[in-house]
């Protein structure tokens, strides 16, 4: 092809890629919520975790500390920050200790007699009123008079204060200047609940950003600093560190990779053009996701790009086989059967994932199949036309020739595969340590200093446990509230026994209809109350008529329709109730937060009692069981994929001996990687499994090329060169990942590096046909 | 730092470095105010009995309370009611705690009790004797008639001025006898200390009667 035609092709190709990129950026929605990557729930516990509560209300709580300035400044900042956050609909609530007198909307004020527990043990009679009025008189003589005075006329028994106390969090921190502080008054403390789940990094990132902005607005003239902790903050932080490290490694990788290719092919243009197939594959894969699913999970993309990394080998095979005797197109035509066998069998194998019934895995299948096929086809039909006529011929290299001779002379013992397999199996079975790692969080651990700070803040704030949760289910909201009231004394007993430090029930905000009705019926008639009040005022200096508003409110409360979840939900505290009381598919659920769980067994025992209308949700257990269920699906998919792969390879190669030579290296390699990981004390996770799949894909290609050797020695040298470059570049890339400090990157890196090394050696020893030995000798 | 806490920390600061509290222009107290306040200075801790009469609009007649005050230092004041009921108020570091027998303590910030804050400031100021520092937060005015004198404080801080109209301190020679705090809403309280703490009062003493008593006590 002329230079002009080549340039034209390049421009068209780049234009198509730009078009794809634009489409992907506009059409592909990347979700980061871990739940959408998970399989459908099987157990009620998993269903609650996935469909109903996200990761639990505890995980949506952010713990805030403001420090670095004088206590008065910090208190003022706490109030201003809370005011800003209260107006933001991304947050369910913000608590900083301020008594919220406006907690009940003005028109709902008469409801205080139905909401506060006072009337359960007390009637509004002369004795009670007199006692209260005497206390109010003392209040008027005390410094508290300043803020009580405006309330007394309407609320002489201070029901609003009783409500505010009942609605305060179970274990409150110390106060300074009305707001929560650490015991040493060095930090103002706040609790913020986000609408988004704790493990949704994108939404949590947004929430943290908003907090940061608000804080900088209110604190720009101070020395104060804001610290945010909690699951959401961890998620964001871990995501940032992981992607920062992955990017850093990626940069070094790219430099190393390009250098290696430059050394191997000596043509800058060739190396650059070599990036096109992988780029095309990645973009085509993402575009396919946008078309088929409309969106993709972030983990799908991360796994997917790992898996299609094998496509970088396709141009390398082409480049290494270039020579002056043949045009690139002829080279590609000769290589195609081998390359196509590898690609086709891998793609067909991934069909198994498509049948897994899990969204995340189906997406992975579509992405990988489209990506690999595109990369192979563009290599075969696009890249070849870009290459110049004066290639670097790998067969000319003296050291390749020398290496080839030495390798050709290597023995190929028949006993090697069975022996290695047996040893590996023994190691896999007998190595100590847990086989599987079910705790996904263990792969992305939070830095210890953050965990320590979180523990300290959590204790000071009395914030709910993120692991345990009681769940009440009922036909309607009122059934849940009634059950919640039934739980109250039982949990109070647990708290008294020290099993838990506190708890938060939905009925604390909104009592059941029955309870409200009982309280309403205890309210005296207007005449009775007026008489009782007048008797109670005897001898006390209150002016006549001082409590007219009180009489009006009580009479109003007697006539009110009972307060229901919908009306309460529309008020200032509505979101708080909604976080604990939610309708779901025709029924309602109530969530009971637990604080400071020190004896989980006591909770298990409580929830197991037949008269207890709630069950205990252990979020850690639920998410681990979910991961285990997920892994089972992946394993089934992998088994099916392996069978498909073997079938396709058998179909392509026909002869049993050839099939065995191609499949044996990758099978033994998989066993060896597992053995090495087990001996290294590593528990396997999903990330290891995905990396194993990549390693197998690489191994298949190496074996196919080693197995399919031409009689021509030069051609054999070129094949050796190709596989050397492929394995060296892949090894380099994943070795750096293997050295990462982050377990998740290390898991992928170690597995693939081991895979490349084992696959290369085993393909060399097991895949080459025996007849070659006589040629070599 | 807030006005209140700076006032509360004032005594120690002024003892250590009186020259640090220089003033300028109209903020400066007049010479007679300086002279008056300086002679009121007392060593710490200081204790006195008191009788307080509170005029609250909700009530048809004033509240009368008796007890004692203990000014312990820097920012600590104890106010104990012994009659007609028992109650102990402790102010420390800008925090107020009210304790009644058999009831859980109530805690809140001094900022929520402006009347108490106004009284505390005037009380603190007289006992520490630093007129210049006091003048930064209040417009001061003094009147003397024979052995009797009266010092008027009107808050400059808008936040405090919203709640407190003025504080009147009256006394004889070097001893304050009355602290009268007038709130913006119309409520007021008169605190009689020292020689007047035990003065016999009628069932419902009028404010004017008390003012007369403060201005002319023998």
TrEMBL record, chain A:
Residues 164-377 form the Membrane transport protein MMPL domain. It is a multi-pass membrane protein. One of its GO terms (cellular component) is plasma membrane. The keyword Transmembrane helix applies. Pfam families: MMPL. Its main location: membrane. InterPro entries: MMPL_dom, Mycobact_MmpL. It comes from the Bacteria. It is found in: Cell membrane. The chain crosses the membrane at residues 272-293, 299-322, 334-358, 364-383, 415-436, 634-653, 660-680, 686-706, 718-739, 745-767. Signal peptide: none annotated. This is Putative exporter. It comes from Tahibacter aquaticus.
From TrEMBL, chain B:
Residues 1-16 form the signal peptide. Keywords: Signal. The keyword Signal applies. The keyword Signal applies. InterPro entries: OM_lipoprot_carrier_LolA-like. It comes from the Bacteria. This is Outer membrane lipoprotein carrier protein LolA. It comes from Tahibacter aquaticus. The lineage of its organism: Bacteria, Pseudomonadati, Pseudomonadota, Gammaproteobacteria, Lysobacterales.
